[in-house]
Structure formats: C-alpha cells, structure tokens
Amino acid sequence: MMVMKDKLDSIKKSHKRSQEFGLQSSHIFPRHQLSDSELEIHLKKNDGFLQIAEPFLQQLYDVVSGSGFFINLTDSSGCILSIYGDEEVLDEARKLKMVVGVYMNESSIGTNSMGLVLKDEKPVQITSKEHFISAYFKWTCSAAPIRYNGNILGCINMTGYA
C-alpha cells in the first residue's frame, strides 16, 4: 500500500494529468464507452479473465451486500468488465455512467482509484475530494491491481459513499 506522502504525490500528479487530458472537475461522464457491438467483442476477448474473477467478485459482494458499496472489475486499460452491488448504489453509479463498457482510466474520467491503480500499479484508496471530478466527491474507492505472471490484467475496485 502507498504511504501517505507517496499517495498525495501520486494524486497531485494524477490531477495534473487529468487537466492535461482536457478534463474539468465539472465533467460528469467518462469520455470513453464501448458501443454495444464493441462491448460484445471486448467481453468475449476477456472471457477467460471474467470466468476466473466472477466467483471471487460474487463472494466479495456477498460480504459487502447491504453496505452501500459496489464492486467492479476492469481490464488493463480501465474498461469496466463486471459490476456487483445493491440496486440502490448501482442506480447512483449508473447516473454517472459507471457501467460495463465504460473506461475509468485517467484520460476518460480523471483521478479515481481504478485509473490510478492502472497507472501506478499499486493498490490505492481515493476518497472524496481526492477525485478529480467533483461528481465523484461523494465516493470512496479502493482498488488493487490483478496480476498474472507479472502483467496487470486489470483491477478490482470497491466503491461506496464517502
């Protein structure tokens, strides 16, 4: 896990990159989302990863069910492949278009735990105003990379209210 100074430096750099990508804190939706046909191809491409990860995601969801958290899995480019959560919190996520097929990397939505994990390749928690996008200030997000043979396949993320 990152130590506090490293985390703050990482967040500061991420905010700078977010600005360089042309994002503004008032931005709401991720910039990049797969079309239905692209999503179908992308999910087939990641089928093996999903088959291995889905049982774990379900077990983790069973633990946090009813807590106001949701869990999602991304690929190595930050595309959400799967989401588990209670309907109430998933409805809030959908309002911000945090859905399967959306990219949560920095260039798409700025500083967030998924984007930062994929950039820094370390577990991280981003809470409230540490996010770049103000619509995300209500969330606390914790993510960790998923590795296989030293390569990052994606990340697992838990998001709940800050």
Report on this structure:
This protein has six helices and five strands; from the N terminus they run αααββαααβββ. The chain has 162 residues and is α+β, with helices and mostly antiparallel strands. It has a single domain (4-10, 54-161), classed as GAF domain (Beta-Lactamase, 2-Layer Sandwich). Strand 1 and strand 2 (80-85) form a beta hairpin. It is globular, with a radius of gyration of 15 Å.
Q: Distance between the terminal alpha carbons, to the nearest Å? A: 20 Å
Overall geometry comes to globular
Tell me the series of helices and strands, N- to C-terminal: HHHEEHHHEEE
State which percent range the strand residues make up.
15-25%
- The tally of strands reads 5
Cα gyration radius (Å): 15 Å
Name of the top-level CATH class? Alpha Beta
- What is the CATH topology? Beta-Lactamase
Give a nutshell description of this structure.
The protein is α+β, with helices and mostly antiparallel strands.
